[in-house]
Design goal:
Blueprint (H helix, E strand, L loop, with lengths): L10 H12 L3 H10 L4 H28 L7 H9 L1 H31 L9 E2 L2 E2 L1 H19 L2 H28 L3 H6 L20 H7 L1 H8 L4 H4 L8 H25 L5 H5 L6 H10 L1 H35 L17 H17 L6 H30 L7 H22 L1 H9 L2 H13 L8 H22 L11
Antiparallel strand pairs: 1-2
Helix pairs in contact: 1-7, 1-12, 1-15, 2-10, 2-12, 3-9, 3-10, 3-12, 3-17, 3-18, 4-5, 4-17, 5-6, 5-15, 5-16, 5-17, 6-16, 7-12, 7-15, 10-17, 14-15, 15-16, 17-18, 17-19, 19-21
Length: about 500
């Protein structure tokens, strides 16, 4: 990756990748996802926690990218450098899963948005999931994106820049409208989320405490910020390494500002109960229609379609790049590291999209396809986020010769680490168990590859303990899904 001809991304392209990945579909349903279980006070607290945690995580990415520029793979490269081969592989596998599940979620959102414009006798989406016709449509989109990326990473990212600019228009319109139509009396009525007085840790009847309200928002906030590391993942293709850090912070701060306006502003326009009860995706279409009429819903749905074009493209790039970079570092089979004449990792791209295709069929059985997709995607990415934060602490702690800012960087790493652990707690057992099920093939592949390479020591003792525990939790997830017990993720099995 040292060839200058491969360093095709400038600051604008990197920022577009970060913003394009983060602002996918999450923002369009974010008011509902937050209001389902939280009032104004809890949402404000959630954003304070999220802003602090994500900024700390973002600065960790920037610091590590600047100090360890040779770690081109970012996220999982940090796990490998700090904690060994197995942890590096596990983080690469988790990040790959997250990218693939993200595209599945975008497929669901795309169908719902297109369905808004379809005649009633031709439906792509019904209830909480796609129809068979819908699955055929998004499958076609999947392979069209595949063909575009085969044309080269540079051309694909140029398209992403254009799409990122285009989708900003309906988002800005929604933000302006919620500011104009905001009523403080409406917001104050939603402030405690159904509580008559503030209860911080103990539920009051069927109304969750402020703590549980905050917890209910965590996976939605993570889903909305996934992509923060996008510039780091493509650092090997950046013309200037310093642009990686700039792109990460510019993208992060821009998105935080937009998300706060969307969620807090919406509670000043409609009641929490009405927002939380919205059945159709995207919720922002219903809210904007409430403010300005049916043309508002149409504009939002067009925005969703445009937004998904960028996010799907960005995450297909991420999904193909991850096994490619992992193979270059010896974590994945070497075949994933091969590229075509346009520098596109063909096998990685093909395998990734075949897996997405399988998931697209599977979501036909999901009880709530969109929530299933974004929660699974968010659960999978927690591991690489956590290990990036852990490595930030370890690297800065061990390198005592760093003369300036070392203590501050350690504090930033600790804050990011605590935030990551909080997210594991917020994810809950159900989705973490099903996510672990998807790790089992990865553990098998890792063990097989290590044996094939002739390694006498496959894993250290504590790594075996982790691997066995992870597989056991995955088996629990499988049993729970097949028996429809506790998880309730699928129907018809």
């Amino acid at each position: 990756m040292s060839d200058n001809s491969k360093k095709v991304l400038g600051l604008g392209g990197l920022v577009a990748l970060v913003v394009g990945a983060m602002i996918g579909t999450g923002v369009f349903d974010l008011p509902k996802n937050m209001a389902e279980g939280a009032g104004g006070l809890a949402i404000i607290i959630a954003w304070v926690i999220t802003a602090i945690g994500m900024v700390a995580l973002g600065y960790s990415f920037v610091n590590l990218s600047n100090r360890r520029p040779e770690l081109d793979g970012g996220v999982f490269s940090y796990a490998r450098a700090g904690f060994g081969e197995f942890w590096g592989f596990s983080n690469a596998w988790a990040y790959w899963l997250s990218a693939l599940l993200g595209n599945v979620t975008y497929a669901v959102a795309l169908l719902s948005a297109i369905n808004y414009f379809m005649p009633k006798n031709i439906q792509l989406f019904h209830g909480a999931g796609p129809t068979i016709l819908g699955i055929i449509v998004v499958s076609a989109v999947l392979w069209l994106v595949h063909i575009l990326i085969l044309g080269g990473v540079k051309s694909a990212t140029m398209v992403n820049v254009v799409v990122t600019i285009a989708k900003a228009i309906p988002l800005i319109l929604f933000a302006i409208c919620v500011v104009i139509f905001f009523h403080f009396d409406q917001f104050s009525a939603n402030f405690l989320g159904g509580l008559k007085t503030i209860s911080w840790a103990v539920d009051v009847g069927k109304v969750p405490s402020i703590l549980n309200q905050v917890k209910s928002t965590m996976m939605a906030t993570v889903w909305s910020f996934i992509g923060i590391e996008g510039a780091v993942l493509f650092s090997s293709r950046a013309r200037n390494k310093k642009d990686v850090g700039k792109a990460t912070i510019i993208g992060l701060l821009s998105v935080v500002f937009l998300y706060v306006i969307f969620t807090i502003g919406s509670l000043g326009v409609m009641s929490q109960a009405d927002i939380g009860a919205i059945q159709s995706f995207p919720a922002t279409a219903v809210i904007l229609e409430h403010m300005v009429g049916s043309w508002g819903a149409a504009i939002i749905n067009v925005g969703v379609i445009i937004s998904i074009a960028g996010a799907w493209l960005a995450w297909t790039l991420f999904g193909a790049e991850t096994p490619y970079l992992a193979a270059q570092q010896g974590l994945f089979p070497a075949a994933f590291g091969k590229t075509n004449k346009r520098d596109t990792p063909v096998l990685s791209l093909v395998v990734s999209n075949v897996i997405v295709q399988v998931f697209l069929v599977l979501i036909y059985f999901a009880m709530d396809a969109y929530k299933f997709g974004y929660t699974m995607c968010s659960s999978a990415i927690l591991l690489p986020y956590a290990f990036s934060a852990f490595y930030q602490v370890k690297y800065m702690w061990q390198n005592k010769e760093i003369p300036k800012g070392r203590v501050v960087q350690i504090i930033i790493g600790v804050v990011a680490s605590v935030y990551a652990l909080w997210l594991f707690y917020g994810a809950g057992l159900a989705y973490m168990a099903f996510t672990c099920l998807l790790f089992i093939p990865g553990v098998v592949i890792f063990i097989y590859d290590r044996i094939k390479q002739g390694n006498k020591i496959i894993m250290k003792a504590y790594e075996w303990v982790f691997a066995v525990a992870l597989c056991a939790l995955g088996v629990y997830g499988l049993v729970a899904v097949l028996t429809n017990a506790s998880l309730g993720l699928f129907s018809g099995f």
